[in-house]
Amino acid sequence: MSEQLFLWDRPSLNPVPRVKEAMRQALKSCGLSREHVVDKMNSLARAEGLSTNGKAKSATADMLDKWVADSGEHLIPWKLLPIFCHVVGDISPLRALTAPLGADVIDKNEKKLLKLARAEREIKKLQRLKKQIETEINL
Q1: For the chain, which residues make up each domain, given as ranges?
Q2: Helix 16-30 to helix 34-48 angle, to the nearest 10 degrees?
Q3: pLDDT tens digits for 12-57?
Q4: For the packed helices 34-48 and 81-88, what is the interaxial angle rounded to 10 degrees?
Q5: 114 and 106 in contact (C-beta within 8 Å)?
Q6: Which one of 2, 54, 117, 133 is at 20 to 30 Å from 33 when CA atoms are compared?
Q7: What sign has the CA pseudo-torsion 78, 87, 108, 21?
Q8: Which helix (H) or strand (E) holds 68?
């Protein structure tokens, strides 16, 4: 019998509330004013050849306030989310975006730790193989 996946058997795939909350927390803890955040975002966006969606060519503090507001009406354009995360020094909004899929976003240090763990696992595997071969050839 195949298992049916019901709506109540899985986490919500709607990332909006989690992303907005993560953005609010990142703003609080970054130590920058909203104006400074949007200034830096606009600078980086220009360097990357990006603009906001709609009529505005650049982000404003008012837009940022709308992007982090509880209402799901205004969302940060997805192309600006990495820039926002870079400016505030926090990848938790990206983590909030991927969480409904059971995925995670890792930073440089976590990536190195993961690489180390994989290397350690490979070393243990090779040590077991070495021991098995030594046993087979009576060493």
Answers
A1: 11-105, 106-139
A2: 110
A3: 899 999 999 999 999 999 999 999 999 999 999 999 988 876 666 8
A4: 130
A5: yes
A6: 54
A7: negative
A8: helix 61-68
Sequential DSSP letters for 46-62: HHHT---SSS-SS--HH
Percentage of the chain lying above the pLDDT 90 cut: 78
Q: What angle do CA 115, 121, 122 make, to 5 degrees?
A: 90
Give the contacts of 95 (CB within 8 A, at least 6 positions apart). 22, 104, 105
Query: Per residue in 105-126, pLDDT tens?
Result: 999 999 999 999 999 999 999 9
Kindly report the CATH number that applies to the domain delimited by 11-105. 1.10.260
Phi, psi (rounded to 5 degrees) for 120: -60, -40
Q: What is the pTM of this model?
A: 0.79
